[in-house]
Amino acid sequence: MEEAPRFYAHPFDDDKLKEECGIFGVIGVTDASNFVALGLHALQHRGQEAGGIVCHDPELGFNSARRFGYVRDNFTSADIMETLPGPLAIGHVRYSTAGSKAAVIRDVQPFFGEFSMGGAAIAHNGNITNALALRKELIERGSIFQSSSDSECIIHLMARSLQKDIPDRMEDALRRVEGAFSVVAMTRTKLIGVRDPLGVRPLVIGKVADGWVLSSETCALDIIGAEFVREVEPGEMVVISAAKGVESRRPFRPQPSKFCIFEHVYFSRPDSIIGGQSVYETRRRIGVELAREAPVDADLVCPVPDSGTPAAIGYSQESGIPYAMGIIRNQYMGRTFIEPTEQIRNMGVRLKLNVNRALIKGKRVILVDDSVVRGTTSRKIKEMILDAGAAEVHFRIASPPTAWPCFYGVDTPQREKLLAATMSEDEMREHLNVDSLRFISLDGLYRAAGEPEGRNNACPQYCDACFSGEYPVEPSDMVAKGFQLKTAAE
Amino acid sequence: MEEAPRFYAHPFDDDKLKEECGIFGVIGVTDASNFVALGLHALQHRGQEAGGIVCHDPELGFNSARRFGYVRDNFTSADIMETLPGPLAIGHVRYSTAGSKAAVIRDVQPFFGEFSMGGAAIAHNGNITNALALRKELIERGSIFQSSSDSECIIHLMARSLQKDIPDRMEDALRRVEGAFSVVAMTRTKLIGVRDPLGVRPLVIGKVADGWVLSSETCALDIIGAEFVREVEPGEMVVISAAKGVESRRPFRPQPSKFCIFEHVYFSRPDSIIGGQSVYETRRRIGVELAREAPVDADLVCPVPDSGTPAAIGYSQESGIPYAMGIIRNQYMGRTFIEPTEQIRNMGVRLKLNVNRALIKGKRVILVDDSVVRGTTSRKIKEMILDAGAAEVHFRIASPPTAWPCFYGVDTPQREKLLAATMSEDEMREHLNVDSLRFISLDGLYRAAGEPEGRNNACPQYCDACFSGEYPVEPSDMVAKGFQLKTAAE
Amino acid sequence: MEEAPRFYAHPFDDDKLKEECGIFGVIGVTDASNFVALGLHALQHRGQEAGGIVCHDPELGFNSARRFGYVRDNFTSADIMETLPGPLAIGHVRYSTAGSKAAVIRDVQPFFGEFSMGGAAIAHNGNITNALALRKELIERGSIFQSSSDSECIIHLMARSLQKDIPDRMEDALRRVEGAFSVVAMTRTKLIGVRDPLGVRPLVIGKVADGWVLSSETCALDIIGAEFVREVEPGEMVVISAAKGVESRRPFRPQPSKFCIFEHVYFSRPDSIIGGQSVYETRRRIGVELAREAPVDADLVCPVPDSGTPAAIGYSQESGIPYAMGIIRNQYMGRTFIEPTEQIRNMGVRLKLNVNRALIKGKRVILVDDSVVRGTTSRKIKEMILDAGAAEVHFRIASPPTAWPCFYGVDTPQREKLLAATMSEDEMREHLNVDSLRFISLDGLYRAAGEPEGRNNACPQYCDACFSGEYPVEPSDMVAKGFQLKTAAE
Amino acid sequence: MEEAPRFYAHPFDDDKLKEECGIFGVIGVTDASNFVALGLHALQHRGQEAGGIVCHDPELGFNSARRFGYVRDNFTSADIMETLPGPLAIGHVRYSTAGSKAAVIRDVQPFFGEFSMGGAAIAHNGNITNALALRKELIERGSIFQSSSDSECIIHLMARSLQKDIPDRMEDALRRVEGAFSVVAMTRTKLIGVRDPLGVRPLVIGKVADGWVLSSETCALDIIGAEFVREVEPGEMVVISAAKGVESRRPFRPQPSKFCIFEHVYFSRPDSIIGGQSVYETRRRIGVELAREAPVDADLVCPVPDSGTPAAIGYSQESGIPYAMGIIRNQYMGRTFIEPTEQIRNMGVRLKLNVNRALIKGKRVILVDDSVVRGTTSRKIKEMILDAGAAEVHFRIASPPTAWPCFYGVDTPQREKLLAATMSEDEMREHLNVDSLRFISLDGLYRAAGEPEGRNNACPQYCDACFSGEYPVEPSDMVAKGFQLKTAAE
């Protein structure tokens, strides 16, 4: 119910799960929006479709800008940044859920609402699993939705709360929503951060000069020279003001935490630190575990760039087989091509990757990739490698088979499209037609992620629903639409 | 003398020498322009500022498009590609020589001229060292120049030739020009490739179905599935037609070849093959040589991404010190930001690189980079590494000290700005304030580049003027402007 | 609270009152949006800043597009019109209230709301005089406003209505609003038109093939070849469906009608017919009345183009003084220049008008203009005429002195800025420094507008608040802000 | 051989001859480009497709900008005007010769050439009738053309001249060209104006403060407040410098002048003065002559807006039949729509004109138009008038039948498309199916244009080739292409 952007991008099948958002906020600095722009640039891997910034200045009030495209193209010119003044700002980058629907600027966060006690803006990473039910209820009571985003429910719930101040209204609203969410919000004078009771999505607190920062990941603290203070804890709300600093609240009933283990495998940047652990180091250890669990005699260990690199290094170190760049990535390939011709679209993976032919020829090659989703890219890579004359191709995958969709803020194909939902590991190897294919075990992954005893099956230390089908929060909207949860038999 | 493009980009100091062009052409295929677009995408590392395509269709004649920006953004939509029909096309990507002057679309190649016997288009990689003298002479005789490009001389020389056909006119014209040049040109029915007598810049021939391809590098043959046939030889002109295939001519007096050794060090893509050698493998061997020439006790070998990676792998393999990703590159950083704010501009290298803090802390780190030009980036990287808590920082550079500007198609700072022009290796170490700094020797580099005996000082096998100051062709325009050649004493 | 459009226009002081909107809708035709685009083009004089179309197709649902700029530039390409399919569509053009605030696309109508029984869109011409009070009440009850437009209240009032279908909800909503409004709205199957009880703004019904049309003016029926059926009556709601044709409702308590007399003077197009009278003929008769009320000996009668033309023709016919084009209008002057330089901005009226020097020199000139608002343009025109050598300048104005602001959908300066609010007719003549200045009387205007007895002062036949200060509906928001109504003494 | 502009406009058949250019230059003022922009805005009726400005500043050298679209949209922002500094500038607006070929920015004037003695820019109104022959000769001698414009020949002829300074080279060049041309040119220090020996196209000299102006028409002097000095005489070259003022040269052999009589009929603006006569007054007198030559009993005299207006006023005054606005022009219709849908394109004349139905109904109407070219618009207007219920329709045309194409800078259809080339006046009346149709006689036109004795058939006082077929300069390129000149028999 709104016009499409003028150019819409055609995403190439790069066959990955997609994080849907990155969030960032800062209070107590001059030109807060500039900091937010830098932070969002560092979080761009969490969402490349669009970005938005809302800011507040005591004299000039709230201002905002939302744009399709990269932060570096939209939020760097003096022209735009001068329209975003003030010491308090929040921002959001989002991933395209393209294909199904045209992207609309109205869906780009942060969302803003004018309440009787003043304005508030909110940016959200995650997914509200009862959003459809809430939306229906709110429309029946007279709310008018402006977007198709699940996050807009929060603003409408806040508008209807009877609480007198905005943080209280936000508590009210968030107690009604289910699912996974990290939130960065702002009023005229406060910066607010929240994580859901399970703490599925990350959120950290930083300090820069006299100001405070909230960010999805620590890598975005580094870019602005901010010091890492601590993580917002699962179920915690922090309300930060210039006057009082960080105040902590606990709006929810406590629960065992379930951080998303796929943040370690793929979503987060390798230079971020999560739960006290280096993401890079976790990934390298996955490679070490893989080399122990699934050794093979070969000449070269090559990463599928760039996400397979740390695990490939680990595999090489543990196995003693030389590490090499067998596949070269084109640095000038964006995530998308603009309206490509049919011929170019059919080039698929070639636009992005090329085999280092002189290196590969006649060699037995171990390819280390982070995950297999639909398997389409894996097939094309295998073909390129064989075309270049490799003697053998062995796939080693740095995560267990992805057999279940995520409903907590990650864009996954429908279950039927997941290769591992319909095939055993052996069938997948035949389907991909490679000399060997091995995934790391769930226990191996947990060990690499800092759990020396592996997975606690009674109460897993992480959310691993995409591998195990064990959903820590029932995805009620999806169940209402007919999604089949895992049965005891599975 | 022409309007500036609407948005001009601010290049960040990433302190590298810049190749100025990539060229590509194809004949005898359906929709030749689509192939050219793919080829230019694969050659984008040779020039990111702008690109152009000229094509010819027997019915629709010549058509062209020239645009600022990446190939993937300009030459992929059906909209534009449908305006570029026909079985014969050539293309060009160019690097910005920004800073001094605003970029103008008139300077974007290929250049086109309408001669009495029909039109011709020409794309050029290299630099004509007597262009200013030629330009002055041509203007005095009534030629009207439309660009500030040295390459336009070739078209005007062709227009004044008395020869009856276009390849003959091109021979006439090229015999008048001095310097380094690889040329891809086209008439209505022919695809033409030329390399200067020294063969300074690369150019290769490929075959795709019934058609023929000319390309700066082999990696652009791979993207369209073309087979590598051979290199155009130094001093050779090839005239390719559907009817007669490849005809070879020798317009110039033979000379010993002087291929640019910096193509091996940095310019070419690692998956290209030059002179029968894998660029990746040459770079890895440079790392091996460096480890032998300049060993040091340390905990980690880290590349400065992405160009230092192969040499870092080689150094690690030879030294036994573990290879690690100590510096993480932001994938969403383009080469430029559009009109950045002062604050963002000052962020410099941080927008592009971040230190993997958890890994680096307390470690003795060897950083492998491809070259040191002005040293500005090296300083910033060192500071980032030390801020992150490294115990020691050792720089190992995969090329000798860059002490002389290139006049053969590479954008280099003026001599005074080159760190190695004014400092000894030891002074540079002090200037950068690192624990050690070592460059590979010229002999070591030649060995890695396939010359087991090292450099033949009597008649070097490569052009290495940027390291040695020995220019194989006198840069006459520059000398006329007062440039001081190396004296016997130096 | 939203970004400004990329280019914002600088309106030149052309010193006119501005109609704020034109509305148009059609049902029961193929490609209804194309008809709406044509209708809006014919209504462009009622609003030049922006336009929007919402349409509905049984299969493709609701679609919309909103753009800044002219209809001819935004809603004519196949590209955009193909995204607006279906047999039912409404549209809106709006005038810029620029200056005070940046224009925002969110304020561009039609507005859309998704209700539990389906979507509805609404386009509004007029002004809701209690909008601020309603807005405050709605926000307190949890509504989230997305625009600064008074019209958005209607959608929120509808959302909160307990009625079961949309026309009933609209009745509910409109009974809560005060002021002047003509509304065109649509549901999935119905086209709805409403005029406020006083009928201040126009709205007519037309018939085209099997379909029905609603339009602000009859000139927009002509462009699509539609037949004029009748006016929507003051206080009437018409609900039009393919099945049942036009159904009439009467949601409001009956009141004597008060059509805006300024529609006759200036707002409506001369080829429209209002209340059974030709606008052109009314204006010509104003000239006739003026010639009787305020004769003067002179050589030429010249219109101030283009709005003064019919009255100048009438004045010439009644007085026998020759009609001539003494001032030539530049056809290529839009209503605005884009970001003009200071020098160009200072050119003011010269960019738009030029004196026909050869004609004017030495002549006694009667200038006929439609109105005097701030008097700034009148002064400049007088200076141009004198510079060109006119012997005498006599102004004749086709409306009474404009001494009061309009609160019913017309953009007027604050009262202090209106020349007639602070000066007598004689003071104005001195201020403008012309040989004579005369306005038509209120009675003369009413006679020209078809009331042979002139104005019925007990119950005026038109709304003439801008001349008389007698507001037929109290402008309650403005009074709350301190606006002083006319006292008995005035 | 160059990319098309991104949006190309579809001109509607408004069935007029089109002037192809307006030219303007100024020297000796601060920010000369701002004056040029204003002058071009006043000359926009002479060319609406594109405009260009070249300027020179002693420190910043030559700068230029060329854009598609209106002056008011392209040359008014501080942004662009600040890039055009200096006390000397020239500019050009051009009409689209669209249809045959896509418009290209390279064809937009002024053209610029860098000669050995410095740069020069040139803007041209008219047409060089031996341009194809010159072009062929120049290409054979080595010139490389950058545009398809006939005007580019002048620059290349100048480049090959052996004269030492630019005005002398221009004399050399212009002596080689045939046809009709008014030229405004500039060097670094001089402003140059030339008219061809016949003086077909206009060019006037003005004075503004200490500076000098050259302009196609006097209306563009008015807009900048410049004083009219005199016309450049046929066959005169004026060289204007700050130091020496206006110097006059006579490069050509004297000939009797042949000013284009159609400038009086249609091309020039009514507020311009040509040859000492007011264009408005000439047009009014044409109406008077028409009323004498072709009287008819009727109720109303209505102009076809806007160009028929002065003649309609004259006809009304002479005949005593009331003048009225029977056809209303939509002010928001540009000359083109951007890529209109088929449906909109078919609306043709309705988008631009509407009948004032209430006025026309039952009346006998005289329609006064300036010319009949193909007759397509006349037919549509007649249909609209009859649809609205007119009792009779009488066409009176303010020019003789247009039976021959113009080759002197006006865009005319091929001869076969001209209604008067194939039909007698009576056949045209039947074809248009109107009650009467009369054209003014050639003698009547000459009388109105200030020749009391009418046309001197032995040596006509004007160029009237479009009416008479008597071409004062043989159109040699066209004759070479097969155009048939008038035979003695015709």
List the helices and strands and how they pair.
The structure is a homotetramer of 490-residue chains.
Chain A lengths: L8 E3 L6 E2 L1 E7 L4 H11 L7 E8 L3 E8 L2 H4 L3 H4 L6 E7 L16 E5 L2 E11 L2 H10 L11 H9 L5 H11 L2 E8 L3 E6 L8 E5 L2 E5 L3 H5 L3 E5 L5 E5 L3 E5 L9 E2 L1 H6 L5 E2 L2 E2 H15 L6 E4 L5 H11 L7 E3 L6 E3 L3 H5 L6 E3 L1 H4 L3 E6 L6 H12 L4 E6 L12 E2 L7 H4 L2 H8 L3 E4 L2 H7 L13 E2 L1 H4 L7 H5 L10
Parallel strand pairs in A: 16-27, 19-23, 23-24, 24-26
Antiparallel strand pairs in A: 1-21, 2-25, 3-6, 3-12, 4-5, 4-6, 7-8, 8-9, 9-10, 10-14, 11-12, 11-13, 14-15, 17-18, 20-22
Provide a compact summary of the structure.
The structure is a homotetramer of 490-residue chains. Chain A is of the alpha+beta class and 490 residues long.
Features:
490 residues; 28% helix; 6-stranded antiparallel β-sheet; 2 domains; Glutamine Phosphoribosylpyrophosphate, subunit 1, domain 1; 27 strands; homotetramer
Query: Helix count of chain A?
Result: 18
State the separation between the terminal residues of chain A, measured CA to CA.
41 Å
Point out poorly predicted stretches of chain A: 1-11, 98-102
Q: Report the major sheet of chain A.
A: 7 strands, antiparallel
CATH class group of the largest domain in chain A: Alpha Beta
Annotated CATH architecture of the largest domain in chain A: 4-Layer Sandwich
Q: What name goes with the CATH superfamily of the largest domain in chain A? A: Aminohydrolase, N-terminal nucleophile (Ntn) domain
Shape of chain A: globular
Helix content of chain A: 25-40%
Count of beta strands of chain A: 27
The share of residues in extended strands of chain A comes to 25-35%
Give the total of domains of chain A. 2
Largest contact between protein chains?
A-B, 62 and 61 residues
Query: Could you please say which CATH topology of the largest domain in chain A applies here?
Result: Glutamine Phosphoribosylpyrophosphate, subunit 1, domain 1
- Average pLDDT taken over every residue of chain A: 90
Radius of gyration of chain A: 23 Å
